[in-house]
Amino acid sequence: MATRDISKILFTAVYPLYVQKAERKGRTQEEVNTIICWLTGYSREQLGQRTKVEINFQDFFSQAPSIHPNISLITGLVCGVRVEDLQDPITYRVRCLDKLIDELAKGKNLEKILRQ
C-alpha cells in the first residue's frame, strides 16, 4: 500500500479536525490557534486567512514567517512514529503540530505545550 505524501494534505481540511479534537476534550479553538501561531510565527490574522483558502501543509509551512526555535524540544510518538526521528522537514513539522494538539487534548498546561 502506497503512503500518502503528508505535505500534500490540505491544512485547510485538517485544521477543523484539530479544533474538533480540542473542543471534544474541553479545550478551545483559541488554544489551538495559540499553538499554531507559536509554532509557525503566523499572526492570528494570517492564520485566519490560511484557514479560509485551500493550502497544503507544504505551502503552509513554507510560507510560515518563522518556525519556533524550540521545535526541537517536541519529542514523543505520533501515529506510532517518534517525532524526533523524522528526516523530512515538512513531515517533521506536521507531526510536531500533531503532537502539540495531542498534548492539548490530553489536558496538558498550555505553557508546557509551548515549551516555556
Write the layout of secondary structure elements.
Blueprint: H1 11-24, H2 29-40, H3 44-50, H4 57-62, E1 77-78, E2 81-82, H5 89-105, H6 110-113
Antiparallel strand pairs: 1-2
Q: Short description, anyone?
A:
This protein is about 50% helix and about 5% strand. It has 6 helices and 2 strands; from the N terminus they run ααααββαα. It has a two-stranded antiparallel sheet with strand order 1-2.
* Neighbour order of strands in the largest sheet: 1-2
CATH class: Mainly Alpha
Q: Could you tell me the radius of gyration in angstroms?
A: 13 Å
Structurally, how many domains make up the residues?
A: 1
User: Order of helices and strands, N to C?
Assistant: HHHHEEHH
In CATH, the architecture is: Orthogonal Bundle
Shape annotation: globular
Q: Which structural class do you get from the secondary structure elements? A: mainly alpha
Looking at the structure, the CATH topology is Helicase, Ruva Protein, domain 3
Stretches where pLDDT falls below 50 for ≥5 residues?
none
Portion in strands: under 5%
The rounded distance between the terminal residues' Cα atoms is 40 Å
Largest beta sheet, briefly? 2 strands, antiparallel
By CATH's scheme, which homologous superfamily applies?
Answer: uncharacterized protein sp1917 domain
Helix content: 40-55%
The number of strands is 2
Mean pLDDT: 94
InterPro entries: SP1917_dom_sf, UCP033199
Pfam families: DUF2200
Protein name: DUF2200 domain-containing protein
